Amino acid sequence: MLGAVLLDERHLHALVIDVRLKPQHFYRPEHQAIFQAMIELYEADRKIDNVTVAEQLEHGNRLDAVGGVAAIEELVGWVPATGNATEYGRIVREHAQMRALLEAAQKIESDVQGRQLEPQEMVEQAERAVLEVADDERQRTIRPIEDVLAEETTRLHKRSIEKSPLTGTPSGFGDLDEITGGFQPGNLIVLAARPSMGKSALVVNIAENAALAGYPVALFSLEMSESELAQRFVASQSKVRGEELRRGRVDEKRWPSIMEAAARLSQTQLFIDDSSDTSVLDVRAKSRRLHHQVIDRLIASPGEALPALKRGLGLIIVDYLQLMRPDGRIDSRVEQVSQISRGLKGLARELQVPVIALSQLSRNVEQRAGGDKVPALSDLRESGAIEQDADLVMFIYRDEYYNRETTRPGEADIIIAKHRNGPVGKITLTFRSEYPKFMNYAGAQFDA
Q1: Cys-Cys with 237: which of 28, 242, 261, 349 at CB 3.0–4.6 Å?
Q2: Residue 341: in which H helix or E strand, if any?
Q3: Where are the alpha helices (DSSP H) in 78-182?
Q4: How many structural domains are present in the chain?
Q5: Is 177 found in the same domain as 51?
Q6: What is the share, in percent, of the chain residues with pLDDT greater than 70?
Q7: Based on the domain organization, do 92 and 195 belong to the same domain?
Q8: 318 and 209 assigned to the same domain
Q9: How high is the pLDDT of residue 372?
């Protein structure tokens, strides 16, 4: 393959772009160095042949390590047909994957025999290792700041040209997206409230809004069954009262709109898991598999208009954090919640997908003296690690819940109490308890 490129440099483009071949895919170090030199010439838009490759290696004091000029010229003589260069490259990459799979298997065997971890954690690590072999582009390495800055400034410049405030997965609520720019890849978002404030309803609305916008969404519900979730989705989209839907009291004339809403949702990439006994390792393993399935679907359908699928899942939701089962044998509830919180943050960063985790607030809100029931960060239940791990913390507050004489019926405040990469503040949404459903509020303003 290397000799084919030396004979005809046009093959290198297909190897780099289509086959995604990299120097580390070659078994022999000298071949890695030669292909690296080819890449350097390719990026500098210079001609690639045995003379220029030798010169590039000599410039970096690498020529003697590969066997000198004679070793490079010898590669040309081993080429059966230059037209098969792309196929040769695929063979090199496949062999590299087989070696990586063998190394992963040996590591798994060593971990099992050593019994250093709990069985479930070993299963999670084994699955992760195998999936990384399937997609070795995801493996992270130490990178120079020059490369990081080049990528980031290009991305920021593109955003400036597009002039779109949305840089992440949309919530579907204009004022919230204006502040956050959408939920950002790699971020852990905590949505907390007291019971009956509507936190499950809000994430259901966010899930359907994101899915209808073309973003694949995984919803892990430890509290509601898939049947209950389906009813909520249909009630929200068809604007039929949830109680009427559940009791079979919907007028026959309303059914066309219900079926239309169901059909619309059926076309989305919305995935539901209602397993009640779920740990953070379960969520990570299922999300990782689903993430790769979504990517594989895009690769299999390159002509399909699904731009949001380019990075796999667009959003992961866990409802809710305190119901998750801790891994291992940890007696302290504070440490258990801390472990879950760190695990979800790790999942967000690993897959580069925003993760929304619902959380309960402590009873301190109700016990607070006076009429001030607005939640604060100190009200997060059971662990300060939730606040520490979260990139964005939001609270729901509805005045009508505490005050029957409120002047704000049907209104809900979404309080952004922590925002690692942006402003904090408050927006207002309309809450329709009969569905239940949150909606954009015409009079909503951002209070800094």
Answers
A1: 261
A2: helix 333-351
A3: 85-114, 119-134, 145-162, 174-180
A4: 2
A5: no
A6: 86
A7: no
A8: yes
A9: 74
Query: Of 12-16, 20-24, 386-390, 415-419, where does mean pLDDT reach its minimum?
Result: 12-16
Is there a domain that residue 366 lies in? yes
Does residue 159 register a pLDDT over 70? no
Last residue of a domain, one of 140, 157, 183: 140
Per the domain annotation, does 155 fall within a domain?
no
Same domain assignment for residues 177 and 100: no
Helix 68-77 to helix 29-43 angle (10° resolution) is 90
Q: Among 121, 140, 159, where does a domain finish?
A: 140
Q: What is the DSSP string of 357-406?
A: EEEEBPTHHHHSSSS-----GGGBSS-THHHHH-SEEEEEE-HHHH-TT-
pLDDT at 305 exceeding the cut of 50: no
Structure-block tokens of residue 249: 């009291």
H or E segment and range at residue 218: strand 217-221
Q: Look up residue 402 and give its two tokens.
A: 């505490």
Q: What is the pLDDT of residue 446?
A: 44
Is the four-CA dihedral 160, 162, 167, 173 of positive or negative sign?
positive
**Residue with structure tokens 């992440």?**
168
Q: What does the angle CA 39 – CA 43 – CA 49 come to, to the nearest 5 degrees?
A: 55
CATH at 356: 3.40.50.300
Annotation marks residue 244 as catalytic: no
* Residues 228 and 264 occupy one common structural domain: yes
Q: How many CB atoms lie under 10 A from the CB of residue 45?
A: 6
Catalytic residue among 109, 118, 162, 223: 223
Q: Among candidates 418, 398, 416, 417, which has minimal Cα distance to 408?
A: 398
Q: What is the Cα–Cα distance from 236 to 239, expressed in whole angstroms?
A: 5
Domain coverage including residue 13: 1-140
